[in-house]
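Hypothesis: this fold can be encoded by more than one sequence.
Test: take the structure tokens below, design a sequence, compare later.
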């Protein structure tokens, strides 16, 4: 994997892209307004960064990060993401996204909705419970005691391992939460959401979550 595509280039997307470039990856950014609007962002990221359409970023990325408002998930291109690992950073905020009955009634998870939309992709929830500025601030070498931990959750074990390896390179320990059906444990309002925790603390927070 040498190229990471980004569908969405807001605060989280840019922060993850910065970590990726710092570790030698090429990044392809996209947003809903077109690649020309990302010229300043690309220039700031340097020579490993470029901008493209959403379809272009999905096609060019070996791995693709979806980091858009949840309400827009039906607009994520399906065909170019078939067979790929897709990192989902999204959260459900009713005040922004409007009411989604499946989530309000706890019949689904936010990442589960994206997985259903991308049936041939391997969706992994990650980067959804950390502030964008902390993606750079809290990154530490692997031998750092008490290093901050982040969750991965997804239905494909190999995909989870791929994303876990990426998070480790980017400076974080990883707690594997298992399938997307369990990803509600790190959605907004849960003990682990937004908290700066090491692996043990994050596991405790996940176990304490109530749906």
């Amino acid at each position: 994997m040498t190229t990471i595509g980004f569908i969405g280039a807001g605060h989280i997307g840019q922060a993850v892209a910065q970590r990726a470039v710092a570790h030698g990856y090429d990044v392809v950014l996209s947003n809903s307004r077109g690649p020309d609007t990302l010229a300043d962002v690309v220039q700031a990221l340097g020579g490993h960064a470029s901008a493209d359409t959403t379809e272009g970023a999905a096609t060019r990325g070996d791995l693709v990060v979806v980091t858009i408002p949840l309400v827009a998930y039906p607009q994520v291109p399906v065909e170019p993401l078939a067979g790929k690992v897709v990192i989902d950073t999204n959260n459900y905020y009713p005040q922004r996204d409007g009411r989604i009955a499946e989530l309000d009634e706890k019949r689904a998870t936010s990442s589960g909705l994206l997985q259903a939309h991308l049936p041939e992709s391997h969706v992994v929830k990650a980067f959804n419970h950390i502030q964008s500025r902390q993606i750079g601030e809290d990154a530490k070498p692997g031998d750092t005691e008490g290093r901050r931990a982040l969750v991965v959750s997804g239905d494909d074990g190999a995909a989870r391992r791929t994303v876990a390896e990426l998070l480790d390179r980017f400076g974080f320990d990883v707690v594997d939460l298992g399938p997307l059906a369990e990803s509600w444990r790190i959605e907004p309002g849960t003990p682990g959401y937004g908290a700066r925790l090491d692996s043990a603390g994050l596991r405790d927070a996940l176990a304490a979550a109530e749906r």
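The longest helix spans residues 157-170. The chain has one domain: 3-208.
Hypothesis status: open.
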